[in-house]
Amino acid sequence: MTASPEPNAEVISFRGAKRRLGGAQVLAGVDLVVKRGERVAIIGPSGAGKTTLLRLAGASLFATEGEVRVLGEDPCRLRDGPLRSLRARVGTVHQHLQLVPQASVVENVLLGRVGTRSLLQIAAGALGRAERSRVGALLDRVGLAARLDERTDRLSGGEQQRVAVARVLWQQPDLVLADEPFSSVDPERSATVAALLAEAARGRTLVVATHQIGPVRAHVDRFVGLRDGRILFDLPGDGLTEERLAALYRVEGPT
Amino acid sequence: MTPLSQAPVRRPWWLRGPGLALAVGLVLSWRESEGNLGAILSSEALQAFRDFAGGFFPPAHAPSFLAGIGRPLLQTLAIAVAGMALALLLGIPLSLAAVDPRVRQALGGRPRITARIVHRAARLLLAVMRSIPEVLWALLFVRAVGLGPAAGVLAIGVGYGGVVGKVFAEIMESTPRGPAEALGAAGARPLAALLLGIGPQARPVLASYALYRFDCAVRASSVLGLVGAGGLGQELELSLKMLRYDEAATWVIVLFALVATADQLSRWGRARLARRPSLFPASPARLLRDLAAAFTAVAVVAGSARFLALSSSDLLSSRSLRSMWGFVRSLFPPDLGPAFLRVLAPAAVETLAVSILGTAIAAACGLALAWASLGGPSSLLDEPPAPLRRTASTLVSLLSRGLMNLCRTLPELLWALAFVLAIGLGPFAGALAIGVHTAGVLGRLYAEAMEEVPTGPLAALAAAGAGRTALGIFGVLPQAFPQLVAYTLYRWEVNIRAAAVLGVVGAGGLGRILYVSLSVFDHGRTLTVLAVLLALVLVVDAASGWMRGRLSGTEGTAPVEAT
Q1: Is A16 on the interface with B (CB under 8 A)?
Q2: Which of A112, A189, B395, B429 has its CA 20 to 30 A from that of B419?
Q3: Beta carbons within 8 Å of B171's beta carbon, 6+ residues apart
Q4: Is the CB of B200 inside 8 Å of chain A's CB atoms?
């Protein structure tokens, strides 16, 4: 079974998905369907289960109970090879970026296709002129064209963020996930990063987990509120009210 | 709240369980290794030391003698190079197999029973490989493939392969996994994620460790000659036994220079590697340079093998394989007769005692050397001392550093040879040898640990009027203490292996029995001794690991130089 190309296909579908991690019930039964081309923000306080939800959606973690389908597939049932092919169709901008610090910028971008290419092909890509100029053009789109051969750990946090986005662009995934993409940039830069993400997700499906609503408001058309591993609300972009937010971030217990 | 005066008084650590156990252990070890201050201070021993010191100067420098140095020296170096190449060849694949399966899972692999079995088997194999010291491997290989450098290369290859495999696996396990997990999430195979995500971060540490091991291999190959496995050890032994101390002095100087050169080279290599701007060559010129470097490395290894007249077709010829297989078969069945076990038990206790006493001597001397080499607490506080005092402390510091280097450069086996000549056969010579060699190693590690203590408390003590000694005892020692103990325990693990070897030159313990059983071809006994040795080493490793765990809450990884 492969994903059907027609619009309205379900890119992610969770039905009663639960996940335990280290003895704690991180996701306590989540129902969520994201359709092709949608832009969704998962919001909620720290520890709500946003990262776990994204990892299930990226097929790098499996549900302990319930059903999860990614791009039409059930990751649990796939053999190793097809599972890797599925993961290669999901691009992730990780919370701490997780670039390889000792690699050059061009190498980190090329690593986006590590799921579909051999080591030798990646090594050759760093040398070959054609590949380099394509990566260069891509870095131009995120505003980093001049830093191709710089070691990644010499870049600033904001520049590394751009490399991470370029890596996802190079991967050409069907689904783009972003986990707290604004955690390593200052508030003024958040808007730029959000725009970059939206650009990376053009023609693709986007799911962003964040607790900063401001930067994403202009780019998403749906807000899903997550709290204590459950979905509290699922609203269209303009339906998010102050009361809803207050309920989501309400501090419980005696204060 | 309990008033302060009524709070129970906590005894200092040296009056509680661990301290008392240590004291009892030391007393027992002193007895079991036939510790005898009289033996060191006897007039004969003092005369022997004087003869040593007098005979060493001037070192032999007759042209005819110097002309003969080159070949054994090159042979030693070639054994180290070829042995280290074999160690990496064995150690790297084994380390990949031995990495904790949880790492593989974090990189996107599924939990598998087979992965856990492979992991366990690789760990076990590595433990056996590294628990038998390289000198004993050499003894075994001399029996299996005959006298000559081939036995030395195989000994270093197998013994160091075990250490390299274990340490490489630990380095990879302790490297941050984030980047590799991200690659796994993008669909990389677990091995590719490991190589591309963990490899680049671990690379400087891995290279640094491999180069440090090469230093060790040079030292080790210089003593393998004592058991007939080629290199300059044979010449050095000959010089010592014929009382030609001036020649021995020249050999020691040459060895010193060799080790120092290897050390410098590895420093240079590490620095270059840490500066690399990319994983793969980024331009054709770089690619050519990398290829040239790889080609040179292969050529050096191949050249070494050729110089030693080793050839894989010889080593793997049916005749030599038959001889190896014959040796392995002759090990069975092991001799488990009660008469032999009754001889073996005290020898095992003796080996354990020698390792404990030697480590204790090393800790005491190492601490003194380290403190002297730091040039006092003013160097820690960055305060300029009075000029005269500075000259004196610089001199003391240089002297103690030189002494530490000398202690460290000469392997335990050579020290044991010297002490056996000076104070006679027996385990005490072994304990002294381990003590002297390890004092050099621990002294350097201690000094580094003490240099890194936070200086705030020191400044506060100094401001309150504390003198040099008070600063050391109340400011530096308490802060560095856990680390000093951890280093000492690591070295104890190394020393239990060393103690098992020293019997070869007459310093008692399991090594003597093994040497005898190999010499008279009683291989059933050889296997029993090896099994007992393995058990002893594993017990000491576990005990030391447990104590380190209690000390720091985590087991941590060994500092490169301590393993």
Answers
A1: no
A2: B395
A3: B202, B205, B206, B209, B557
A4: yes
